[in-house]
Amino acid sequence: MHIDLDARTAALSVGEFSAFTTGPRDAGETGAAGLWRAQLGTHWHNELRAQASAEHAAAALFEVPIAGKVFHRGWTVALTGRIDQLVRGDRALTLREIKTVTRALPADEAELRADYPDYFIQLATYAALARLGGLSGIDAQPAAFRPLLCFVEAQSGLAQTLALTPADDALFRAQLERIAEFLNLRLRARERLRTLRYRPAFATPRPGQETTQAELTALFERRPLVFFEAPTGFGKTGVLLEFALGQLRSGHFDRAIYLTSKSTGQIQVVRTLQIMSDVAHPAGAATSLPVAAWHIRNKSEHCVNTTFHCVRDACAFLHDLPARWAAAGLARFYLDERHARDLDTLRAAGRDARLCPYEITRAALPFNDVWIGDYNYVFAPRNRGLFLAQPGYAAARTLLIVDEAHNLPARVADAHSHAFDAIAADGVRLELHRVHAPAPLATAWDHWCHFLRHLRPTDTLSAAEEDDARHLIDGVAQQVRGAPLDLAALGPQAADALWALPSLLDELAASPLPRLWWCPRPGELALTCLDAATAIGATLREFGGVVLASATLTPTDGFAAACGLIAATGEVPPPPRSDAAPATEKLGDLTKRDTKKLFRQLTTAADLLRADEARDAASPALLRAHTPWRDAAYAIAVDARVDTSFQQRVLHATTTAATIAALHDAARGPVAVFFPSYAYAESIIRELSSVAPGLRASLQPRVRDLAEQAQWVEQALALADALFLVLGSSFAEGIDALGGRITHAMVVGPALPEVNAVQRARLAEAARAGLSRDEAFRRVYQLPGMTKVNQALGRLVRAPGQRARVILHCRRFLETSYAELLAPGYQGGAPLHDDAALDAWLEA
């Protein structure tokens, strides 16, 4: 749906118009069942087309375009579509729409009208547009129209035809009323934004924050693709929200989407927005409504059923959704901007109404100005449909903000990666036999299981093995799409596993990203995306404006390349070549022919200038936050006595343990020690038992629960002498409790990724993209590792007055290729070449 609120117009297809609703849609004909029905629908459409051609010859027309504009309640609604069949008759023109259904036919007309209201609305709309003269290819307006709806039973091809009556025109008018109601609500939302009032992000700005908002806005107006780099603790969330609200109030965008990679970040966005929206109004001033924002949580978190299985026949909360929605009164969640909309409230409302809480979220999104959620809702093929399917959603009129954006390339690559194993596949095979699935499907799945069972660990499948895998995936996909399956009887795990293969096949066809087909363990097949840059870049360019924010975007050339915003080699495409020379002659001395030649040269130069300006506008611009309070906050030393590379670290384990003990003695309190891996940290704990047996080291637990993580940090700060943290983990990147409480820290090595099949494949892919050996190593190993180091160090100083002394414990930090990847505040550390230099630095 394309909406122009200023012109009060909306343009949409007839199919979109007939299916439109401001509430949830029935899940019965979507997803897996919908794909199977669509495929059989094409078959029966072709059969009935051949039959009509044989019966009516030239009097029959097929896929006939139809269009028209309808004025309703001050809105102009433009509709376009294609009618399946037109048959000319002596007295009337027959409009025939064909719909394939899975239920048995013939059926009572009242049941068909109740089960498939969209189909009747669609045909009624076609009839209304035909009466308005919207048919293409019709020489003269017929005296009458005869609209027929032909239902076809998918499995047998048995047909049942129903004729619309003049009374069915009310279906068309009622749908127009729904569209007008939605458009009026969107207009109301825009008026709300124009009068939006909100608190500044900071009541008292810190040094450096005073000018950031103005600088970001000015830069964004020139270049609507901005990299915003600000250290941890600067207040990026507040800056970004204030910027987004200002853009919405100015009318530059209809909606803002704020994405973060962690639920903690999303919760912080919600809390900050609530504080900013709590505005006191002057006496006598009109009360403005708060910005309407919605935090999208995972579908499984919404679920209130005993089993998470989103199939109508298996979930009473999904059954007969449209009919029960209006009586449940759940529209209050989007009609009242002040209504509570946290997850607990949604779950309670869904449980009371016996309706899926996730459908409340889905129905409410179009009426909200700010969407807050995970990266997957924009970048993952399996999840982005939630946003794309929302009526009125247009990426070109949307501001996209991506926080913690340094995580984006890896997260999107994960979203385009897949894994399969023989044990899970055998479980599906047993389920298929239990429900007596069609024999061709069961056979195709047996072949897939056999293939997986015989896989052995390898860094890459051979060309023949990959071809076999693709052939088997295609075979299963064809059978899954062509067979009616009782998904409720199969259960959630088996149903998801079956439909993973058709989804994978579609993804492989739609996004030719480089992938490694390999076997990490016996019986396991992994399809690992090596580089998602092209997918990220294509998605980012859909939006009207983008801000990518993080504490660690430097070096920006590597980040821009990882996001598909510049070439892999870091080069910007050159402007078009031209032989036009600068025009310096005096016009008065030129002949008419010379004047024409010069005019062409000037025109070419102007075109080149415009091309340069357009390219600059499409390329990312960088804004670094001013943080004068961090200028002298870090004292950095580089320990050149040790080499912590995988092959050499064991030789220096005693020195590493002794350095931790010395650091703790100097700190007179707990210290933080960051390691590349759990295994390395555990080996140093063992070494400490002999080097410094009295030192209490506490290694972060392998837990994901945020409350448990925070509890461990508090206990360790109170009871331990050294907190051992793993670089790249949520403890190192997501825990904000260290600032001001840890004054001494140590980073044990640059945390390069493990050398494995995937990393070797990424190196090879970088070489194929034109990078040199050193450039490829920098992109694949050094950049990810040093980003983890920068992220960890940023947690130590989060506010003015905080200080940290840090030892970078590896001589590689002195090498230029590593040192230049440190954030500017961590560069230029004092080299420590012997024990005396370490002692002197600790005592300074």
Description:
- The strands form 4 sheets. Strands 1, 2, 3, 4, 5, 6 and 7 form a 7-stranded mixed beta sheet that branches. This protein has a 7-stranded parallel beta sheet with strand order 10-11-9-12-16-8-17. A 7-stranded parallel beta sheet has the order 20-21-19-22-23-18-24, sandwiched between helices.
- Helix 12 packs across helix 13 and helix 19 (463-481) packs across helix 21 (492-510).
- 45% of the residues lie in helices and 16% in strands.
- Helix 27 links the parallel strand 20 and strand 21 (722-726).
- With 844 residues, the chain is an alpha/beta fold.
- The chain is built from 32 helices and 24 strands.
- The protein is globular, with a radius of gyration of 32 Å.
Helix-strand layout with pairing:
Layout lengths: L1 E3 L4 E5 H6 L11 H26 L3 E13 L2 E14 L4 E9 L7 H7 L1 H15 L13 E9 L5 E5 L5 H26 L17 H11 L2 E5 L6 H14 L5 E6 L2 H15 L15 E3 L3 H4 L18 H8 L3 H4 L7 H11 L3 H8 L5 E5 L1 H4 L5 H4 L9 E5 L5 H8 L2 E4 H13 L4 H15 L9 H19 L5 H4 L1 H19 L4 E4 L5 E6 L3 H8 L4 E6 L5 H7 L29 H27 L2 E4 L9 E6 L13 H15 L3 E5 L2 H14 L5 E3 L6 H14 L2 E5 L3 H5 L9 E4 L9 H12 L4 H22 L9 E5 L7 H4 L10 E3 L2 H9 L1
Parallel strand pairs: 2-4, 5-6, 8-16, 8-17, 9-11, 9-12, 10-11, 12-16, 18-23, 18-24, 19-21, 19-22, 20-21, 22-23
Antiparallel strand pairs: 1-2, 3-4, 4-5, 6-7, 13-15, 14-15
